[in-house]
């Protein structure tokens, strides 16, 4: 009996380590809000790889600024901003929400002052190391770097790999 239990423990440990690795590497997020329409719609589920390494044009999940560096536009209901739980039962992230946005500029790129009012007075000429500039695909319904400036180092949760459906 003891040999049978010992033989079953190995695969269970391997399975447990696999589950632990997957949860530390990936998350499934549900989009709420209209800021990424038509690319993503409310209810779409995304497979997100946790990483801080991103490229311009990728869809990313970032932590909302805390404290917010600028107010959301007056015509946007805060309840419509995307909120994505990190995992069931997890505490809310800093800022209380995560946002889904597209990367407009990465570290080392020129600061896009013309299209991003919050960055017009930025003292640097290039995006600082570890920072991002993000924009929603539906700018009229998006709260993004135009209002709050750079996404700070460490606030990028991951890159959306694919849509899983609704």
Helices and strands in order:
Layout: H1 2-25, E1 26-30, E2 45-50, E3 59-63, E4 98-106, E5 132-135, H2 145-148, E6 156-165
Antiparallel strand pairs: 1-2, 2-6, 3-4, 3-6, 4-5
If you had to describe this structure to a student in words, what would you say it looks like?
- The chain has 166 residues and is an alpha+beta fold.
- The chain is built from two helices and six strands, in the order αβββββαβ.
- The longest helix has 24 residues, at 2-25.
- It has helices at 2-25, 145-148; strands at residues 26-30, 45-50, 59-63, 98-106, 132-135, 156-165.
- A six-stranded antiparallel sheet has the order 1-2-6-3-4-5.
- The chain has one domain: Ribbon (Umud Fragment, subunit A), CATH 2.10.109.
